[in-house]
Write a structure and sequence with these properties.
By secondary structure, the protein is α+β, with helices and mostly antiparallel strands. The protein has helices spanning 22-25, 29-41, 70-78; strands at residues 2-6, 9-12, 16-21, 44-46, 55-59, 63-66.
């Protein structure tokens, strides 16, 4: 199964390592350093316009900044297609 991150970006669910809410992640100094380090040293795929990012998605190969909330992405990743009726 795939997870839609926004725009035209889909990733395989089994490749997702973490879905991080940027608002709560920046509350701690260590988290903020971690995010700053990723932004400086890693190639991040921006799905949204600058300043509209809500979630950092870490996959086994890439980093994405998405305008979709972490709660919505988590629900999408947990959704079992067999439950839809």
């Amino acid at each position: 199964m795939y997870l839609h991150l926004g725009g035209d970006i889909l990733v395989k669910k089994d490749k997702v390592v973490a879905i991080i809410d940027l608002e709560t992640a920046t509350e701690g100094k260590n988290n903020e350093k971690f995010l700053d380090n990723i932004k400086k040293n890693k190639n991040i795929n921006y799905i949204s316009a600058p300043g509209k990012e809500k979630t950092l998605i870490i996959t086994s190969q890439e980093y994405f900044l998405s305008p979709i909330s972490s709660i919505t992405l988590f629900k999408r990743s947990s959704l079992n297609m067999g439950e839809l009726v």
